[in-house]
Q: What sequence folds into this?
């Protein structure tokens, strides 16, 4: 059964009822990624989805905040915020609900300059596994009263509660936002250019190394790039003068590489299609140094395209061969979006304490 | 009561000279920067994460309460031993372990002093943005335990925005790593629940911090007003205009006078309020923003506007702001510092309301505010030998708490609940919320031995209905 409450109160009621009946519940957002969860699809436990909880409750430019329900997607929120002169700096995750971004710990494009999604949440109301609606934080930019429960849900895949209402911290809409696309001859040269930009203390929103193999799937090609080339994407946003000056500085630091300037950074990224949805594609979470190493050693015979986000610590890779075989060879530890890794001493303590009957996203469904 | 056996074992772990039980040490460690005084039974100063973990494990075996402490600059009683036990003074854990300029991170031990880290990073062109007023002495572990902010909070955020991972000692002495320090980057990241937990869920031993490039240029503006509320209005208007200064600080007329008396900077003694605004970035963009700020301040009723014309003048203005607490000693010898925060648009009203509270209770309240993020620091001044005045200050504090909550705000923006605000938690949180937080505390610290008596009210306080 797919239960779709229309309010946090309805969601709390459903969770309480399920708890009383000792029935398992699986939290979900807009269910855009349900296909990655064969165990759930096969076993058929009840889903509680926030798909119908997508109201924008208020937008307050004078307080740099917006209050929204967890089923809303960034794509639905953006035009409303832009109309109020605001920007929520969590980009590149347009189709997922805010609750899902939180639950997955999904990496925003703007992580390099702005940090993860959790840095842009002032308050969160969530329904804890026994069905009580809990609010943490609120409408102030600073708040250290009590424990910060907003961050408890980060990367916990909803297993510690269902996010219901977010108070989002926003920024003034940037006056200018541009992506400088610098063409480089090969992986080592692209890495070297990225290193020089970091050392020059340029403050980009994001810094991506992009490899497009000759046989890369079309959908993964951003902008005007064709196949078989390396490029470095430097996204800058802020006041016009800042963007222009830092863009020039980035191009100089990169050693005069041929460049294309995309005049609207936000549009550029919102049109970009990630290789993630392709077959033989995977994501890799790793340190900046590891990602640079990956770019230097990337084997074009095996990888058809790569988007390496040096700020977010994430590489999106498309493979020519069977993905898992190649990934094993890379000797990296963290993959995504395979089954969540709900482990760790603190998490296990919390899960056991908050959901002793293991009913809210039972471990059987996420353990491999 | 700590047993002889426990103390002998503790001394063996840290060395006899780092396990203190003498009267003078007990007296010295009974204080932090709040009015609360509670004596620990002994003090241990571990010299490494391993020693700290061993001590916590020993305390677990002997069921001894533990109070972690950095430099003792807590303004809310977070670092005093309310229930005795062993005080863990973490100031010897003061090493910078690793600077990674490519990743823009630094790994530090919890006892590194905030300003020492800034000085360490500066030659590399980086900073750690949180800069609490106590930065000369407060430690990064303390900054994390209280989620300290500071002057740059408007643009750069507060401590939690710059902590990527932690090495923590759990209640039983187990060492765990979270966030970017965890072995698997895909596991749940529970770093956040330890921020501002005042050492009551686990003890921070090491932290991986995100560092930020130092700004290339600054513009520092001082605006003078004949009304405190107008200065708050200017702050709201600047934010609403889409300008995000590094910081915006309000000082009231009493503080201006005290600072002028102390530093002789030529501050206008007839002003009701001064608003310090700093912008950072690249020169050309700053000039345009500065013009807009000037215009907004004028429209909000500023009676005087000036820009620091040299780095020295800028340094003097910030020295004045940072000297506020000391200068207030010229007015009265003791202070209760409040820390409420409100949504930015409620700031002007809240500043006026605090003035009304001072009149109502006949107490001296000096107002400083990290105005750009709606965080007020009303300083309630009193004579410690005048109990009547102290009681009036407490009553005034309670009115300020309630007013902030009525305005949709919070009891504390960056100083923590500690002991000071614990009785008001039920005014901000519902019964369910307090019970949930208590459950979290029980899960992480079943024996209730980590900084006992802090953050959460005793079970008798049931919490409000919302």
A:
């Amino acid at each position: 059964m797919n239960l779709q409450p229309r309010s946090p109160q309805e969601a709390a009621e459903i969770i309480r009822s399920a708890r009383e009946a000792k029935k398992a519940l699986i939290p979900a957002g807009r269910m855009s990624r349900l296909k990655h969860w064969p165990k759930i699809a096969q076993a058929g436990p009840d889903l509680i989805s926030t798909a119908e909880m997508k109201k924008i409750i208020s937008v307050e430019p004078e307080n740099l905040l917006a209050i929204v329900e967890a089923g809303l997607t960034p794509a639905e929120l953006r035009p409303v915020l832009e109309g109020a002169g605001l920007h929520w700096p969590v980009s590149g995750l347009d189709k997922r609900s805010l609750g899902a971004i939180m639950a997955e710990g999904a990496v925003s494009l703007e992580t390099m300059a702005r940090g993860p999604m959790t840095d842009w949440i002032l308050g969160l109301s969530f329904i804890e596994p026994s069905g009580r609606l809990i609010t943490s934080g609120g409408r102030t930019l600073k708040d250290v009263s009590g424990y910060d429960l907003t961050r408890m849900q980060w990367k916990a895949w909803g297993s510690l509660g269902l996010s219901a209402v977010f108070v989002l911290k926003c920024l003034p809409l940037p006056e200018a936002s541009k992506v400088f696309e610098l063409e480089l001859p090969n992986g080592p040269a692209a890495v070297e250019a990225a290193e020089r930009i970091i050392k020059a203390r340029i403050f980009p929103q994001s810094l991506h190394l992009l490899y497009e193999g000759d046989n890369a799937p079309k959908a993964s090609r951003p902008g005007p790039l064709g196949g078989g080339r390396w490029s470095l994407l430097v996204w800058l946003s802020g006041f016009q003068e800042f963007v222009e000056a830092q863009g020039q500085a980035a191009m100089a630091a990169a050693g005069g590489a041929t460049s294309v300037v995309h005049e609207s950074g936000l549009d550029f990224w919102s049109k970009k299609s990630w290789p993630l949805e392709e077959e033989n594609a995977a994501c890799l979470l790793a340190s900046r140094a590891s990602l640079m190493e990956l770019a230097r050693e990337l084997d074009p015979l095996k990888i058809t395209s790569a988007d390496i986000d040096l700020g977010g610590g994430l590489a999106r890779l498309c493979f020519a061969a069977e993905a898992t075989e190649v990934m094993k060879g890379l000797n990296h530890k963290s993959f995504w979006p395979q089954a969540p890794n709900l482990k760790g001493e603190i998490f296990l303590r919390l899960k056991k304490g908050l959901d002793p009957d293991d009913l809210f996203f039972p471990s059987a469904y996420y353990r491999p | 009561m700590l047993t002889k056996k426990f103390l002998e074992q503790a001394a063996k772990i840290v060395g006899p000279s780092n396990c203190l039980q003498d009267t003078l040490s007990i007296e010295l460690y009974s204080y932090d920067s709040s009015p609360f005084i509670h004596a620990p039974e002994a003090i241990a100063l571990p010299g490494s994460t391993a020693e700290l973990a061993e001590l916590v494990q020993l305390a677990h075996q002997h069921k001894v309460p533990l109070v972690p402490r950095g430099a003792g600059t807590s303004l809310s009683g977070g670092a005093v031993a309310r229930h005795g036990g062993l005080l863990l003074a973490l100031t010897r854990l003061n090493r910078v372990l690793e600077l990674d300029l490519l990743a823009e991170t630094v790994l530090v031990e919890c006892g590194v002093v905030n300003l020492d880290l800034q000085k360490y990073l500066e030659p590399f062109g980086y900073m750690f943005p949180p800069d609490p007023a106590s930065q000369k002495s407060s430690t990064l572990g303390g900054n994390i335990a209280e989620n300290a902010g500071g002057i740059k909070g408007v643009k750069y955020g507060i401590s939690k925005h710059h902590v990527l991972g932690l090495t923590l000692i759990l209640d039983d002495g187990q060492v765990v790593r979270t966030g970017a320090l965890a072995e698997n980057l895909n596991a749940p990241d529970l770093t956040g629940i330890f921020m501002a937990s005042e050492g009551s869920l686990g003890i921070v031993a090491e932290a991986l911090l995100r560092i930020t490039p130092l700004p290339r240029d600054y513009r520092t503006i001082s605006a003078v007003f004949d009304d405190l509320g107008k200065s708050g209005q200017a702050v709201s208007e600047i934010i609403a205009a889409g300008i995000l200064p590094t910081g915006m600080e309000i000082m009231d007329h009493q503080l201006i006078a005290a600072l002028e008396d102390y530093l002789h900077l030529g501050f206008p003694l007839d002003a009701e309020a001064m608003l310090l605004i700093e912008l950072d970035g690249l020169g050309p963009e700053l000039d345009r923003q500065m013009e807009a700020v000037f215009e907004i301040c004028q429209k909000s009723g500023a009676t005087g506007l000036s820009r620091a014309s040299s780095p020295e003048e800028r340094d003097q203005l910030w020295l004045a702001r940072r000297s506020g607490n000391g200068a207030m000693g010229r007015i009265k010898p003791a202070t209760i510092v409040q820390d409420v925060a409100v949504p930015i648009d409620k700031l002007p009203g809240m500043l006026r309301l605090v003035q009304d509270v001072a009149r109502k209770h006949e107490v001296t309240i000096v107002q400083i505010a990290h105005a750009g993020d709606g965080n007020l620091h009303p300083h309630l001044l009193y004579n410690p030998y005048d109990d009547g005045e102290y009681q009036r200050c407490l009553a005034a504090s309670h009115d300020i708490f309630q007013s902030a909550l009525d305005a949709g705000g919070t009891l504390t923006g960056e100083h923590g609940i500690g002991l000071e605000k614990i009785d008001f938690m039920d005014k901000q949180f519902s019964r369910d919320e307090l019970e949930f937080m208590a459950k979290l505390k029980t899960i992480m610290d079943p024996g209730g031995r980590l900084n006992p008596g802090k953050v959460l009210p005793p079970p008798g306080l049931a919490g409000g209905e919302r």
Observations:
- Chain B touches chain A through 92 residues (CB under 8 Å).
- Residues 99 and 106 of chain B are 4 Å apart (CA to CA).
